Hints:
Elements: H1 2-5, H2 9-21, H3 28-40, E1 48-53, E2 59-64, E3 68-73, E4 76-85, E5 89-95, E6 98-104, E7 121-127, H4 131-157, H5 164-173, H6 176-190, H7 194-251, H8 281-286, H9 293-316, H10 323-360
Antiparallel strand pairs: 1-2, 2-3, 3-4, 5-6, 6-7
Protein name: FERM domain-containing protein
Domain FERM: 1-152
GO cellular component, one term: cytoplasm
Amino acid sequence: SVIRDHPSLQYCEERVAEEHRTLLGYTRGQAILQYMSLVERLPTYGVHYYEVRDRSNLPWYLGLSHNGIAQYDFLDKRKPRRVFLWKQLENLYFRERKFSIEVHDPKRVSVSRRTFGPGNVSVYVWFAETQALCKAIWSMAIAQHQFYLDRKTSRSEASGVRELPELAVELSRSCVSLSTHSSSSNLSRSGSHSSLVNNSLAEDSASTESLHQARMEMQSALKQRRDALQEKIKEKEEELRLLCLREGELTGELPPEYPLMPGQPPPTVRKRVGTSFTLSENLINKIINKQEETVAALELEYEIQGKITSAALRLANETSARKGVRKQRKMTYQQSAQRLKDLEHKLKAAKSKQAATASGMPKQ
C-alpha cells in the first residue's frame, strides 16, 4: 500500500535515506524507541488479517489485534468499517467454517421472544474458506484477548514505569534485549488463554443446559397438543363417517367425503327402492274447513295409506332381497292393503252420512 500511494520505489528509498540522516547522533536504544513510537501509532500495528465472507457472501477482512476485532473492507486494510473492543465481547466461538462473536450492546435493551439470551447482545457471523482457517481465526482471537488481559494486569500490578532514557540505555547495551523482550511478550500472549475460554465454557454450559431444558419443555407441550389434536381429528372423522353412511343409506350412493384409510376399500351401500311420494294440497286445505273436517281427514289418511301400500308393494316385489326380508315385506304389504280397505269403507260411510245430512237440511 505504501508503494501504491507514492510515485515509485526509488522515491520511497530516497525518503528513507533522508529520514536515516536525521537520526545521526542517536544511540541504538533511542532509535529503537523512536521507531516503535512511530509504529505503534500506525492504524495497522499488530493487526493479523484474515479473509472471510459474510452471510451475503461478500468478502471482508477480519483484523485481530490486542485492541479487539475489526472488520475491514476487502480493498482497504487501513480504516476499519467496524471495531469490536475486547471489553465489549461476551463470547466468541466457531463451528466448522463459521466464526461468531457475541457483542454487548448497551443501547439495545429489548428482549427477543424467539431467543433465550438477553436482548442487549448482538451476534455477528463470518465464514472462512476452510474449517482449519476458521479454527486459526478463533485461536488467534483467544491469544489476542489473553494478551489484552495480561497487559491490563501487568499495568495494574506494576509499581512504577521506567523512563524512556533508561529503556534506551538498556536497549543500547545488547542487541539481544529486544529479542528477549519480544520472546517474553510472545510467551505472555500464547502461554495461557484460559480466562475467556473458561468463562465461555461456563457460560456456554449454563446457557446450553437452560436452553436444553427449555427445548424439552417446549417439545413436551407441543407433543401433548399434537396428541390432543389427533384425538379430536379421530372423533371428527368418526362423526363424518357415520353421517356419510346415513346419507348413503338414504340416497343409495356413498358420498365422496367418506374418510378412508390408505388402502381401505369403501363400504358397500345397498341402493334403496324409491318410495317417496307427494300429497295433494287440496286435501290439506280441506282440513281447515270444519264442516268437511272428518271426510277430509279420512281422504287424507286414505291417500297416505294408498301411497304407503304402493311403496310396500314395490318393496315386496323386489327380488334382490333375502328370503326373510321378502317375507317380512310381503306381510307388511298385506297389512297395509288391509288398512287401506278399512279406510275405504270408513270413507264411503262418512261420505254417505255427509250426503244424507246435506239433503236433509232445509232450503233457504
